[in-house]
Amino acid sequence: MKKLPIDSVQYQRPVASPLVEATLGLLREKIREAWHESGQEWNHFAMRGNDSLVTAGMMQEIEQRILASGHRFDWSASISVEERPEIYKPKDGAVGDAENFMFAHPDAPTADADEQGRALRGVGDNVVRHNRDVTGIARYIRSNERVLSYLSEGVPPGTIAVIDDSGGTLTAPIIDQFAGVICAGGTVRSHLGILTREYNIPCVMNAKITGIRDGDTVTIEATAAAKTAEDYQNNVERTARVWLVGEG
Amino acid sequence: MDVRDTVLHGTALKRHSEPSEIAGIVGLPLETVERELARAVETGRAVMHNDRYALTPLTDVALCSRYSLHYGDLRENPAFVQPYEAFERVNVALKQVITDWQTMSVGGKKVANDHSDPDYDAGIIDRLGAVHEQVEPIIKRLAAQLPRLAIFGKKLLAALEAAEDGDHEWVSDIRRESYHTVWFELHEDLLRIMGRERQE
Asked: Would residue B199 count as lying in a domain?
């Protein structure tokens, strides 16, 4: 891969702001790729028209990468937040975590409350069978702010993590403090499945759930049969159920 | 890769670890790592709780944007890409071995392995040894192109030998550099080098 002239500057200090460092890093990455693909000499590539070197599409992709990390931009005029609330820190200064977010999987089986007051809200692949089901408060773990606050203050007892990251990237440092885990991706052999078995924490992977909000009380059918390697090979549906038992 | 990025990279791999563990995985002196981590916390690049460090999200984005600069040549070098692809194939076997270590069939049902059957456990550790025989030459070929990766070979062998000597926590315990812990970190390192995403 070719290096841009600026990539070889010695002794340059990192820029002051993490956001600027990330933005410039992503932009240079894109320019390196474009130059590499062009097959041209630097002078030709850089002078072929400065208005086509950096495109609006490039900047939109950079913004997406930054937002995907969980970052939300500071704002100076409140109209910005009103126009694009999804990319800015919330106006009231609160941590913008998932208050109203919920998974809504189209194939999630649902049912009205049974005689025990449990309303089916979905299913997942049980990583290992436990002796009893587990009930706790559902918390979506989708922001770094929430992970950092759990890291410093501890995870409240009885928390069931609802996540979509089967690598456990975000949750690994605090995983042992959860009462249960519902993961929208992966399989029982995923890293997260291995982690939760190691800690003896009930966990369903590949979960298809709908209508569970942050703060709701839910039950995971941890006593269901675990999904096996053979089940995956033979496309056998073997799932544990997830019930809503109380709204938060 | 310069010292700053090497320390950031080690912090990304070790996820919320102490400076000594980060120094150990990237092969840098402890004082160098401590100095860079202090600077990272000061400038909002990392957070620290109880002497354990983690990158802030934007800094991981910035670091990932520079991998094509540091490792662009390796991504196009067959002498690196071929053993990397071989690692991905062995990785499937490793994950099955670890899953079988953690579970066993009782009356046709998969339950947690309570490690009360020494024969079952010994069989799994044999399979772990077979996986290691497959991965050892792969790591040698990777390290021939990127020498710091040899650290993973040493750590994997140490964990395997400890498990074979009867201390079974070295198979998959998360709080130590068990076989699975080191393997996961090696995989993460390779994915970052190659600019790929984890499949599951």
From this structure: no
Interface touch B99/A200, C-beta < 8 Å: no
Query: If pLDDT is split at 50, 70 and 90, which confidence band does A94 have?
Result: very low
The answer on B131 and B55 residing in a single domain is: no
Residue A172 to residue B16, Cβ atoms within 8 A? yes
- For residue A154, give its domain range: 119-246
Coil, strand or helix at B27 = coil
* Whether residue B57 has pLDDT greater than 90: no
Interchain proximity A172–B15, CB inside 8 Å:
yes
B172/A128 Cβ within 8 A: no
Give the three-class secondary structure for A157. Answer: coil
| Token pair for B7 | 């320390």
The domain containing residue B29 runs over which residues? 3-70
- Number of domains forming the structure of chain B: 2
Among the listed residues B101, B88, B89, the one whose alpha carbon sits nearest the alpha carbon of residue B129: B101
Tell which phi-psi region holds residue A10, choosing left (phi > 0), alpha (psi between -120 and 50) or beta: beta
Which of A196, A198, A230 to probe the B interface (max B CBs under 10 A)? A198
Separation in Å, CA of A100 to nearest CA in chain B: 23
- Counting DSSP H helices and E strands in chain B, the numbers are 9, 4
In this prediction the pTM is: 0.83
